[in-house]
């Protein structure tokens, strides 16, 4: 679904969303505190919810919310690269063993060391 939504234009993507506005708090003065400039988009097919409240303009917040929605859809649509099993190198094994011996020696010295 996310791939299909990414292929849509901004208008079509906004049409597939439930849009709501709310009073966004924070800096920006009376204009921001008394008007509904915050935008919340709920993408119905995927259930993704994004909000934008950083601007004093509802229009600018709508654009920012659409950009965030596209970014989340891209993240949903990505296919993770298949992992290849690897083995540690000889040097990595030696470093690990040296570290373990050092920790064991330290603990033995704490106990008083039985000779």
What does this structure look like?
With 115 residues, the chain is of the alpha+beta class. The protein has a domain at 2-77: 2-Layer Sandwich (Double Stranded RNA Binding Domain), CATH 3.30.160.20. The protein is 51% helix and 15% strand. The protein contains 5 helices and 3 strands; from the N terminus they run ααβαββαα. It has a 3-stranded antiparallel beta sheet with strand order 1-2-3. A hairpin with a 4-residue loop joins strand 2 (38-43) and strand 3. The model has no long low-confidence stretch (mean pLDDT 89).
Task: List strands and helices in order, with pairings.
Elements: H1 2-6, H2 10-15, E1 17-22, H3 29-34, E2 38-43, E3 48-52, H4 58-77, H5 90-111
Antiparallel strand pairs: 1-2, 2-3
Task: Give a quick summary of the entry.
The protein is built from five helices and three strands, in the order H-H-E-H-E-E-H-H.
List keywords for this structure.
single chain; 115 residues; alpha+beta; Double Stranded RNA Binding Domain; 5 helices
Q: Can you give the helix content as a percent range?
A: 40-55%
Cα(first) to Cα(last) distance is 68 Å
What portion of the residues fall into strands of 2 or more residues?
A: 5-15%
Number of strands: 3
CATH topology of the domain at 2-77: Double Stranded RNA Binding Domain
Roughly what is the average pLDDT, rounded to an integer? 89
The strands making up the biggest β-sheet line up spatially as 1-2-3
Which architecture of the domain at 2-77 does the CATH hierarchy give at level 2? 2-Layer Sandwich
CATH class of the domain at 2-77: Alpha Beta
* Computed Rg: 27 Å
**Shape estimate:** elongated
Largest sheet: 3 strands, antiparallel
Number of helices: 5
Weakly predicted, low-confidence segments: none
SSE pattern: HHEHEEHH
Structural class: alpha+beta
């Amino acid at each position: 679904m996310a791939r299909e939504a990414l292929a849509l234009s901004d208008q079509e993507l906004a049409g597939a969303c439930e849009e709501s506005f709310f009073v966004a708090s924070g800096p920006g003065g009376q204009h921001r505190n008394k008007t509904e400039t915050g935008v919340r988009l709920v993408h119905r097919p995927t259930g993704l919810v994004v909000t934008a409240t950083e601007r004093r303009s509802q229009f600018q917040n709508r654009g920012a919310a659409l950009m965030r929605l596209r970014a989340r859809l891209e993240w949903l649509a990505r296919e993770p690269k298949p992992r290849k099993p690897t083995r540690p190198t000889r040097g990595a094994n030696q470093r690990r063993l040296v570290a373990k011996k050092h920790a064991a020696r330290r603990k033995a010295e704490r106990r008083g060391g039985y000779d």
